[in-house]
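Collaboration report, partner site 2.

Our partner group contributed sequences for two proteins of shared interest, and the home lab folded both. The records are reproduced in the order in which they were received, starting with the first partner submission.
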Amino acid sequence: MRIRSISRGLLLLCALLCALLVAACGSSTSQTATPPTATPAPLTSAGTVSATISGLGANPDHDDAIAASDTAIWVRNGATGTLVRIAPTTNTIVATIPVGHGEGGVALGNGAVWVVNSVEGTVSRIDPQTNQVTATITLTSQGSEVTQAIAVSPDAVWVTQFSQNALVRIDPRTNQVVATIAAQPGITGVSFGAESVWTCNHHDSAEGLAQVNPQTNQIQAQIAVGDTGAGMACSSVVALAQTVWTTSFSNEQYPTTLRRIDPAAHKVIATIPIPQAVAAPFHFAANEQGVWLYGDAGVYRVDPATNRPVGLLDTQDPRGIALGAGSVWVCKSDGTLLRITPAF
C-alpha cells in the first residue's frame, strides 16, 4: 500500500512539473512573438477632376506657373513664351498672350497680371481688361534658365533673382525697379502675407526663411526652416494672413517636407513630411482650407486643422498648381489643365 501511495505521489508530482513546463514554454513564446506590423491607413481622395482643358501647349522640360482668381485662371508656358487665360465659368481658353521664355512665376495684383521671363530677364505687365502687355520691365539679370518667383503686395511687385542672391522690388505706379534687397543666398521663393514679404533662400540651410519689411526693404527676421544634417533647404513659401508655409527638400534624398510657421512668434510650429517620395518643392498652393502639393504619386492635400496629409488624388505628371474659383487647378506637361473639385 505504501509503495502504491508513493508511486501515485510521484505521478502527481511529474504531472505538476510537466504542467509548469508547458505553461513556462507558452509564456516564453508569447513574450518573444513579434506583433503584426500596423499598416498606415491609406489617404482618402483629395477631390475629383471636374474638367480637363487642353490646348495650353506642351511643356515637357519645365514646370508651369499658374495664378488663379474667381474670374480667370492664368497659365504661363515658358517653352512657348505664352500666357494662357482660362475662363472658369466655361472652362475654355479665352486668350493667349505672347510674353517671354523660360521658367518664371505669375502673380495677380495692383490691377494687373505679372509674368517673369527668365530668359529675357524681364517682367511682363498684362492688363486683364484687354489681355495686352502694357509694360515690360527689365531686371538686373538676363539669360538665366533658373526659375524666378514673383509676388505682389498692395504697393509693390517682388521678384527673386537667384543668380544675384537678391530680391527686386518694382513700383507698379512707374513700372520701374526701385530697390534691390541683397543677402538672399540662392533665393527661390517669395510671398506676401501677414503684412510682410517672405523669401526662401535655398543656399541658406541654417536659416532659410527671411522676413522682409515692405516699408523699409530691410530683413527683419530669419527663421530656421531647413535641416542642415539632412541637407534640407528652403525651396518655396506661401504666406497667408496668420500662417506661413514653406517646403524644403534635399538634392540627394528628394523627399519634401512642409513646415508651418507662426509669423508673429517667428518659429516653426509643425513639420510635416509628405509621403510617398518625391513632391515638387518649388510649386505649391495654400489657403485656409488646406495646403496642396503635387509629386510623383499625384496631388496631396494637407489639413491645416491637424497638420497632416489627409488626401491624395492620382494624377499623372503634374507640373503646376493654384487655387481659385472654388477649385484646385493642376497643369500637366502635355498641355492640359485639370480642374479639381476638392474633397474636405
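Second partner submission, folded after the first:
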Amino acid sequence: MNTYLHRGEDRGHVKAGWLESYHSFSFGSWYDPKYMGVSALRVINDDRIDAHNGFGTHSHDNMEILTCVLDGAISHRDTMGNEGQIKAGEWQLMSAGTGVAHSEINNTDTPVHLLQIWIIPDVKEAEPNYQQISLDPRNDPNKWHLIAGPDANAPMHIRQNAEIKSAVLEKGRELSVEPVKKVNYVHVISGVIRIGDQEVKAGDAFVFEGKATIQATEDSQFIWFDLP
C-alpha cells in the first residue's frame, strides 16, 4: 500500500437544495476511479442538512453505516422499530445485514452537521442491528476514544476486523498511532495536525501503515480508522 495524503479539495462536492456534502470517496452522482475507498472503508460523506429537511425512507443491505453527529441533531426511524434523535457528540451504527429501511430527518430549526461513514462488512446477510452511544471526544481531549470495533468490549460492535477511534487534540499535544490491524486512515474533522512530515488539515486524510505520532498544530478533531 502506498502512503498518501488525500486532500480535502479532491473530494466530491455536491450542493443540492437542502443538502451540501463533501464525498471522500465516489458516491452517488460523483465518481472518480482514484477514490473508491481504502481497505474496508467505502464512504465518508461530510453532510450539512438544512432545517426541516433530510433523507426520506430508503433501504440498505450488507453495509455497516456509522453516523457521527458533530453539530445539531438528526431524527432516525427504521424498519427495526428504532426511532429517536442522534445529537451532537453521539454516534449511531446501523448494521444493515439482510436489509433495513430508514430515514434521517433534521426536524429542528437549525442546520445539522454530520459524517456518514460506510464500512464493508466481513459477514454477509446477517440480521440487521442498531446501536447508539454518546461519546464526545471534545469533553475529554488528548486521548483516543474507541467508538466501534470487532470485539465484544467495544462500545459498538462492527462486523469487520476494524477499529474506529476518535480524538480531540489540543495545540502542541501529541498522540501515538499504534495500529492493531494494518492500514491507517486518519480523517481530520477540524484543525490542523502533522503526521511525520505531512501537514493534514480539516477535510484531509492521511493513509499509511505502521506506527506514527500525531502532533496538533492547532486544536484539532479527527477519526482514526484502523483497517485490515
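Feedback sent to the partner group on the second submission included the following. The two ends are 12 Å apart (CA to CA). Residues 4-227 form a domain with the Jelly Rolls fold (CATH 2.60.120.10).
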